Structure formats: structure tokens, C-alpha cells
Amino acid sequence: FQPGDAIYPRDENGKMIYHETDLCATWEAMEACKDAGLAKSIGVSNFNRRQLEMILNKPGLKYKPVSNQVECHPYFTQPKLLEFCRQHDIVIVGYSPLGTSRDETWVNVSSPPLLKDPVLNAIGKKYNKTAAQIALRFNIQRGVVVIPKSFNAQRIRENFQIFDFSLTEKEMKEIEALNKNVRYVELLM
Ligand code: A2P
């Protein structure tokens, strides 16, 4: 394979071929995109603290990442990364905020289904909301942006109905305590 021929190129032994491009050089190219008016703001995805620091400490940094899109939901709450990002005004955008579609081709299904969680369902009953709405409200209430996916019009609407109630501090703590530090999206490649 030549670069660009395949989305996930592999070598002749089936091993994933990694990109050798320096992430800091990529960031500089993204800064140029912003200066050219091609992007309003620029951010990163799946960056850990070490990788964020590499950008933040880059000599001549022009724009900080505004966001870091990572897996985030009540079973994977990202407490340390969230705190670090808060300190640096980087917004966490949480993907798989409902615990994914549990598609076995890419999801670690050994972690139990998030939306069946008894605590989320019990809190939902109190507010006449679903476990999905509680999972989303939990994250937006702690400053995490959520990007739930649904192919269903009713559920897409449901996922917006999270701004007419708020969770108590005790409930926020209860949900935080559900953290298992286990990812659904392991990206093992
Ligand atoms: P569907 O497309 O049939 O609604 P994530 O956003 O964490 O990746 O989760 C996506 C999965 O969650 C999809 O399988 C989607 O199924 C389902 N889903 C989306 N919204 C809801 C909801 N409000 N209640 C239950 N399941 C939902």
C-alpha cells in the first residue's frame, strides 16, 4: 500500500502501518488552516495528557487546542484527563456517551451495557427521564460536551431533552462512582 490508498493500511504481514508524521507539524498545519479561515477553531482527538503537553509546550505555539475528543461516559469518566483539560481551558468532547452500539467488530463488549445500569435507571425514574438522558445530563453538567448517535428520530429528540432538569450533587457523585476505567472503544490497532 501507498499512503492514501487505504484508510487503515497494513503491511504484508497484516500489521497496521503507522503514520510517521510529527503531531506538532500536523498541529502547525491546522493552525495555518485556521489562519486561512478554513476552520473556526481547532482541536484534537484521542490525546492523552502527554500528547496534549507536547502541543501546549510546543515552541511558537499559535493556538491551543480548544477541545479533545475522547471516549467519556459514566463507565469511563476520565477524571484525571478532565481535570487536566479544565486547567488548560480545553473542552472534553465525549464520544460514545451512551456506551456505543455494542458492535462487536469494534466495541469491547466485555464491559456491560451502560444504559442497563441500575443507578442510571433509578435516577431516571425520579426525573421521568431515561438512562440515556441521565448519562448525557451527567456529562454536560460537569462541562463535557456529548455527541450521542442515533438513527431514530424519537431518540434523537430524546437526547436533546436534557436541559430542563438538573442532577443533585449527590447524584453526580453516585454516577461518578460508576466509573470502571474500562473503555468500550479500545482502538487496539
Ligand atoms: P439507535 O440508533 O437505534 O437509536 P453512542 O452515542 O454512545 O455511540 O451510542 C449509540 C447507540 O445508542 C446506538 O446503538 C443508538 O441506537 C443508541 N441510542 C441513541 N440514543 C438512545 C436513547 N435515547 N436511548 C437508547 N438508546 C439510544
TrEMBL record:
<protein>
    <submittedName>
        <fullName>AK1D1 dehydrogenase</fullName>
    </submittedName>
</protein>
<feature type="domain" description="NADP-dependent oxidoreductase">
    <location>
        <begin position="18"/>
        <end position="179"/>
    </location>
</feature>
<dbReference type="GO" id="GO:0016491">
    <property type="term" value="F:oxidoreductase activity"/>
</dbReference>
<dbReference type="InterPro" id="IPR018170">
    <property type="entry name" value="Aldo/ket_reductase_CS"/>
</dbReference>
<dbReference type="Pfam" id="PF00248">
    <property type="entry name" value="Aldo_ket_red"/>
</dbReference>
<dbReference type="InterPro" id="IPR020471">
    <property type="entry name" value="AKR"/>
</dbReference>
<dbReference type="InterPro" id="IPR023210">
    <property type="entry name" value="NADP_OxRdtase_dom"/>
</dbReference>
<dbReference type="InterPro" id="IPR036812">
    <property type="entry name" value="NAD(P)_OxRdtase_dom_sf"/>
</dbReference>
<comment type="similarity">
    <text>Belongs to the aldo/keto reductase family.</text>
</comment>
